[in-house]
Predict the structure of Enoyl-[acyl-carrier-protein] reductase [NADH].
Amino acid sequence: MNALAGKRGLVTGIANDNSIAWGCAKAFRAMGAELAVTYLNDKARVHVEPLARQVDAALLLPLDLNQPGQLEAVFERIAAEWGELDFVLHAIAYAPLADLQGRVTDCSRQGFLTAMDISCWSFIRMAHLAEPLMPGGGTLFCMSYYGSEMVVENYNMMGPVKAALESATRYLAAELGPQGIRVHAISPGPLKTRAASGISGFEQLLYKAQDKAPIRSLVDIDDVGEATAWLATDAARRMTGQTLYIDGGYHIID
Ligand SMILES: NC(=O)c1ccc[n+]([C@@H]2O[C@H](COP(=O)([O-])OP(=O)(O)OC[C@H]3O[C@@H](n4cnc5c(N)ncnc54)[C@H](O)[C@@H]3O)[C@@H](O)[C@H]2O)c1
């Protein structure tokens, strides 16, 4: 139960109590970790602050990746307060709706670059900023989806973006592994969140997941959180670089 006691982690991507990052934050805390939590902006803060309080977050910091310097400020504050960091959760994705809801063939350069910047490059940057705070090792997590490797109807432009994220995970794992820093992409089955609401026909995706997954049920944010938190523990010390599915087995079925 206390496998993360004495460990400190940064959790990004909580928008509300449906967020995957919230499921992770609860599980990290239940295992004894101390947390720093970010919120997008003042509008989001009213939703995130009560949740941060529920997990006794030691730090609550603004993070809008579109604001130059804000990501660096988060890590500077953590360095000043804690000196070191044991894990980082990146649970952030964004794509302009017009591009996300059209064909990949038609997506705009700006839309594609924005989606890559916010949903993928920011994870690479977080790894860069976390590295000096993890002299004794640590774990980095990002959130991906099956649409990275298979063509999932309506997932569109996020498919190539998540493929890049999973590939970045492997390169970061190879580069940072010698320092004891492990890197994982988590690939949950579909979950009804705010980010998911931008995907057309999302309900159909949920029905299909429930029908096809060997477990015959949808995953919830606690399923994702508990498995992710376990990967941050020493029990998972020889695991790195994978994309780990938490999808009831959906990805093994034709
Ligand atoms: N919901 C699903 O079905 C599903 C499945 C697999 C993977 N994922 C991934 O899980 C992650 C979390 O998404 P979620 O489903 O919990 O939705 P969510 O809407 O709860 O979380 C998305 C988060 O991204 C943040 N964000 C967006 N733009 C940002 C910016 N410019 N700067 C900082 N933060 C920004 C939002 O504030 C929000 O907290 C995403 O990477 C998503 O692609 C979701």
Observations:
- The chain is about 40% helix and 15% strand.
- The longest helix spans residues 109-130.
- The helical segments are 20-30, 42-54, 70-81, 97-100, 109-130, 158-176, 202-212, 221-231.
- The longest strand covers residues 181-188.
